[in-house]
Design brief:
- 51% of the residues lie in helices and 15% in strands.
- The chain is built from 34 helices and 25 strands.
- The chain is of the alpha/beta class and 821 residues long.
- A hairpin with a 2-residue loop joins strand 19 and strand 20.
């Protein structure tokens, strides 16, 4: 098996590899992706004293005027000229970067502040002494004076991380422009009140969670128990805009630095329309990418059948000639599910795993049942922290949301806890304001006004605060933040109104890119947005920075690409609702056609997203084609009606058939268990038909009869190394050794349990116990005990097999023996 294609998929899923370059396509110098990648993988942030670095951030003064006066062609020439100067000044040991639009940087590697300041002065001299020469065919050569504004910040002097270093340099750049442009500013020498507007925006980007102390304390308690080896399943619920994603992010940050815990952060997406295992694929991609070998070591230990099963979830694992054929569909579906159950612990080496799943209400049923199985088997501690809109009130195109059914069926069994995010109170808003803006002075009744206008919605509150910052209604005087009194009707009355204002503040090109991002869905990678828009990446980055500042989206760097996500579903809905129907159809057509090319290159996990976009375009023929193709494939790998039959400890068996026993019958259970154990031991040591076996089997029947006189059935089941009798956990302290030995025999026979019904005969007891006592593990295959009960006509005995055990190793060994020379 060759993994090159699969490794390429892992690194590039959800991205456009043709766009994942580290050079700016116009100027040829390094781009923003390179810088963020360098910060993530090359800078020893925990050893900055020995490895200092500085960042010079700059932009071209009045660049828009150059474009408006001379045209974009001359503007591009000016940017190329500036990039050339940066390369010369940076020399070989430092890095010249185009960050976005007309924003540039020099990363001074292993350079302290004084080195960066000297380099900045040299660059300022050069641009002032060497005017840019305009070269156009239809006009004579013309000289144009270009100037730069610069901000300089250093680590560890001004910041201790990449994001904060950029923010400090950006703040200094803001000050240089504010002071008249064509100059440099040192981040360490600027009075905070001089740059309060920029500082406030950066503080809002890192906005603290509002009014959730009680809920966070509850989550912290579950995290503590998880640290002690316990598994937990949390669902954070709340209406749109209540801060569910921010809550998850806050909990995740509490675990982010713990290297002993495997972690994956994923989100449900409507484009997948509940496709089986799509969320599992996302989780696996996250986990495999965290391994140094990208999972190669795990795959090499799998047999051919296991690889074939996994290839249905990760198609890039196989080439067309390796496609398995001839397997019965039901067996194949069961094989896929159970191989995943055993594969995930191998990927994480059975270490603790924390999954953070945003929008769990968009999760597929197959993934939910897989997560249930992993929790039930307890092979490793599993912490699931998820967010959801109330699933009982949520539908997608008429489909019932799997999470609603899953919660109703299994919330008691899995002990699923809900954390409800309620609207913020005026007191919550006060705490939040003081957290974001320390020692803030707040006008009288301001918090109450915000509570009434926003209805306690954190998303709406955050949008209002950004509006106040951008319009300088929040100021810094010395160490004191001040919110100015606002005129009547200044504050918008709805989230829709304020979002519409922010969208209107973008230029036309940026609005088009925002609309395209909304058509993609909740999140989209920078490379996909760039590739589908046909815009140069620097222009897309310029849009991202504008939209982030306006509080419409956020951007995170992950695996060599930025991921753009709307700050809330409602913001995306408002953006999407403003698009004219014809334009929306064209957008989805463009995105569908673009992603179709990626799908043909095996860079998309499925055809579901193609069906989603073409369905919303004018191309209904393609929509039907991909919908049918995906539906056929979904049926091939998962059946909701079947899964109940091969999930271990399925709900119908917890408790199994039969009402709880009355106290008198329950008191007789120890005698039944002792007789069963003696019978099974005798069967092991005596030949069939011997007097010792016949006698003890009669005693088993006599011990069971009084219970069946009062009860329709007696069920004896193994659940988590405990005995359950008619759904009740039995205290075995008085016969512990008997119980432990009986559990071992059930394990050896691969039985989950035995059910005896009224009408039980002595012959049925003898046949069933004889089979259990003499069975050899190599005889047991899938459905063995079901076939046995049918063949022996055991109408009053049920032998419940552990259905998750698929003999993949045995089958693989048989295959090796067949194919060996």
């Amino acid at each position: 098996m060759k993994y090159e294609e699969f490794l390429n998929f892992l690194q590039n899923v959800g991205k456009d590899p043709s766009r994942l370059i580290f050079e700016d396509e116009l100027t040829g110098i390094y781009n923003r992706r390179f810088l963020l990648n360098y910060f993530q993988y090359k800078v020893p942030w925990d050893a900055l004293q020995e490895n200092p670095l500085s960042l010079i951030m700059m932009d071209v003064d009045h660049f828009k005027k150059i474009n408006d006066t001379y045209g974009h062609s001359v503007g591009d020439q000016a940017l190329i000229w500036v990039a050339g100067l940066l390369k010369e000044v940076a020399a070989d040991e430092n890095l010249a970067i185009r960050y976005a639009g007309d924003e540039f940087m020099i990363l001074v590697v292993r350079g302290e502040k004084n080195v960066a300041l000297e380099m900045s002065k040299q660059l300022l001299r050069r641009v002032n002494e060497e005017p840019f020469r305009i070269s156009q065919e239809d006009r004579k050569e013309e000289r144009l004076r270009i100037t730069l504004s610069m901000g300089i910040a250093s680590a560890p002097e001004d910041a201790q991380a990449g994001k904060s270093l950029i923010q400090k340099a950006d703040t200094a750049l803001y000050y240089a422009k504010k002071e008249g442009r064509n100059r440099l500013a040192n981040a360490g020498e600027i009075a905070p009140e001089e740059v309060f507007a920029r500082t406030a925006l950066h503080q809002l980007e890192g906005e603290k969670i509002a009014g959730r102390r009680q809920q966070l304390a509850l989550a912290a308690e579950f995290l503590k128990k998880f640290g002690q080896g316990q598994s937990h399943f949390l669902i954070v619920e709340g209406a749109a805009g209540m801060g569910k994603s921010t809550f998850l992010e806050t909990v995740w940050q509490n675990l982010a630095q713990n290297k002993k815990i495997w972690q994956a952060k994923v989100n449900g997406t409507p484009q997948e329309t509940f496709r089986p295992y799509y969320l599992t694929t996302k989780i696996l991609v996250e986990l495999l990418n965290q391994r140094k070998d990208r999972g190669g070591g795990v795959f090499e230990k799998l047999n051919l059948k296991e690889l074939a099963y996994l290839s249905h979830i990760l198609p890039q694992l196989r080439s067309p000639e390796e496609t398995p054929v001839g397997e019965e569909p039901r067996a194949m579906r069961e094989g896929v599910f159970n191989t995943l159950v055993h594969f995930i612990p191998k990927v994480i080496e059975s270490s603790p795993l924390a999954l953070f799943i945003d929008d769990l209400d968009l999760a597929d049923e197959a993934t939910l049942l897989l997560l249930r199985q992993l929790m039930r088997l307890q092979q490793f501690p599993l912490f699931i922290c998820s967010s959801s809109t109330n699933p009982r009130q949520f539908q997608i195109e008429g489909q019932e949301v799997p999470l609603g059914v899953f919660y109703q069926s299994y919330h008691q069994e899995l002990d699923i806890h809900k954390i409800n995010l309620t609207p913020l109170t005026a007191a919550d808003i006060t705490d939040h304001l003081r957290g974001v803006f320390p020692q803030v002075s707040i006008p009288a009744s301001f918090e109450k006004t915000l509570e009434q206008i926003t209805q306690g919605n954190p998303l709406f509150l955050g949008e209002i605060l950004r509006k106040l910052v951008l319009e300088q209604k929040i100021a810094l005087t010395g160490q004191q933040w001040i919110i100015e009194p606002l005129e009547i009707d200044y504050l918008p009355k709805s989230l829709e109104a304020i979002v519409s204002q922010k969208i209107a503040a973008l230029d036309e090109e940026s609005r088009q890119l925002l609309q395209q991002a909304s058509a993609f869905g909740e999140d989209v990678s920078l490379s996909l947005l760039t590739g589908s828009s046909k815009e140069k990446e620097a222009k897309v980055l310029e849009f991202i920075d504008q939209a982030v500042a306006q509080g419409l989206i956020r951007s995170d760097f992950h695996f060599n690409d930025e991921t753009i996500r709307f700050l809330g579903k409602r913001i995306r809905e408002i953006t999407d609702g403003a698009i004219q129907p014809d334009q929306k159809r064209k957008l989805h057509e463009r995105i569908g056609s673009y992603q179709e090319t990626l799908y043909k290159q095996n860079l998309l996990p499925s055809a579901a997203t193609l069906a989603y976009h073409f369905k919303r375009s004018a191309n209904q023929e393609k929509a039907k084609t991909y919908e049918q193709f995906q539906a056929d494939y979904d049926q091939k790998i998962f059946s909701s009606s079947e899964v109940i039959q091969y999930v271990v400890e399925r709900r119908s068996e917890l408790p199994p058939p039969g009402a709880p026993l009355d106290p008198a019958s329950l008191a007789q259970v120890p005698a039944v268990l002792r007789c069963l154990l003696t019978s099974l031991r005798n069967i092991k040591f005596y030949p069939p038909g011997s007097e010792a076996i016949i006698t003890i089997n009669r005693q088993v029947k006599f011990a069971i009869d009084p219970i069946l006189e009062k009860n329709a059935s007696l069920t004896i089941f193994k659940v988590r190394q405990s005995l359950m009798i008619n759904g009740q956990k039995v205290d075995v302290s008085d016969f512990k050794l008997v119980a432990e030995e009986l559990l071992k025999i059930l394990d050896r026979a691969e039985l989950q349990g035995i059910v005896f019904h009224q009408g039980l005969t002595e012959q049925e007891v003898e046949v069933s116990l004889e089979a259990i006592g003499r069975i050899k593990p190599k005889m047991i295959d899938k459905d063995y005990w079901q076939r046995f009960t049918v063949e022996q006509q055991l109408t009053h005995v049920e032998l419940k097999q552990v259905r998750y055990t698929i003999m993949v190793e045995r089958e693989a060994q048989a295959l090796r023996e067949k194919t060996s020379p």
